Amino acid sequence: MILDLDCGNTLIKWQLQTNGRVFARGRALSDQELVRQVGCQLDTTPLDLCRLASVRSPAETQELLAVLQMHYPHARLLQATVVESCAGVHNGYLEPGRLGLDRWLAMLGAYHAARQACLVLDLGTAVTADLVDAAGRHLGGYICPGLPLMRTQLQTHTRRIRYDEQEAALSPQELPPGCSTAEAVERGCILMLRGFVLTQLELARSYWQESFEVFLTGGDAALVADHIPGVRHVPDLVFSGLALACPLGGEV
């Protein structure tokens, strides 16, 4: 039995698999909630391996590892790390270790699936784009604020932009000019997000014409997925990369 963990700044995404088949998935807000959710799925089945990808601080990551060791003392714990080269992908950063782990794993998963040049887009709290050529060379990437950060900045630094979550939830259905603050902000942010994605597509075409694949992941991916012909929308792309990276991670 294998437990895969993708530990972000706010959520821990997890999946359980056995014999190559994922049979349970979930999201937890805390370490203890994670253990409860996983425990309900495991029942009395022993856990053999836990693979961990964490963008949390070292202290927070160690706390989670301690919780896992306490509850699953016989499981092997592997933590993924960013390296110069893995699974055919060559890190393009001048200082490889400074590349975000989530970006690295997404690239590993995408290139392994495509086996050709690919554009990897992650639309979450931050939006990232990374380009990997047909030889597996990471050409670099881009980072900009995602929808949550754009909203927060507008509400924090503009006195008259205020609206509640219910208004926000109703506004993105269509994208004509907004007739309320909520509509104007939500639709404007979505158009900025789509504009960023279209620019990345143009950039990828300038390198490879049409000989590349586009991978889309992250919580806001659905907002642009229908606007990219042939895109591969893979919500758990990080987990695909985690399986490739873990053999290079040391045992905790």
A few lines on this structure:
Helices cover 39% and strands 25% of the residues. It has helices at 31-42, 58-71, 101-114, 147-157, 165-170, 181-208, 222-225, 237-245, and strands at residues 2-7, 12-18, 21-28, 49-54, 76-79, 85-86, 89-90, 118-123, 126-132, 138-145, 213-217, 232-233.
- By CATH, the superfamily of the largest domain comes out as ATPase, nucleotide binding domain
**Which CATH architecture of the largest domain is right?**
2-Layer Sandwich
* Total domains: 2
Shape: globular
The largest sheet, given as strand count, sense and whether it forms a barrel, is: 5 strands, mixed
Note poorly predicted spans: 248-252
Output the strand order for the largest sheet: 3-2-1-4-5
Give structural notes.
The active site is at residue 102. Belongs to the type III pantothenate kinase family. K(+) binds at residue 122. It catalyses: (R)-pantothenate + ATP = (R)-4'-phosphopantothenate + ADP + H(+). It is found in: Cytoplasm. Helix 7 links the parallel strand 11 and strand 12 (232-233). It contains 8 helices and 12 strands. It has 2 domains: 2-79, Nucleotidyltransferase, domain 5 (2-Layer Sandwich); 90-146 and 185-243, Nucleotidyltransferase, domain 5 (2-Layer Sandwich), CATH 3.30.420. The chain is α/β, with parallel strands linked by helices and 252 residues long. Strands 3-2-1-4-5 form a 5-stranded mixed β-sheet, with helices on both faces. It has helices spanning 31-42, 58-71, 101-114, 147-157, 165-170, 181-208, 222-225, 237-245; strands spanning 2-7, 12-18, 21-28, 49-54, 76-79, 85-86, 89-90, 118-123, 126-132, 138-145, 213-217, 232-233. It starts with a strand and ends in a 7-residue tail after the last helix. Helix content is 39%, strand content 25%.
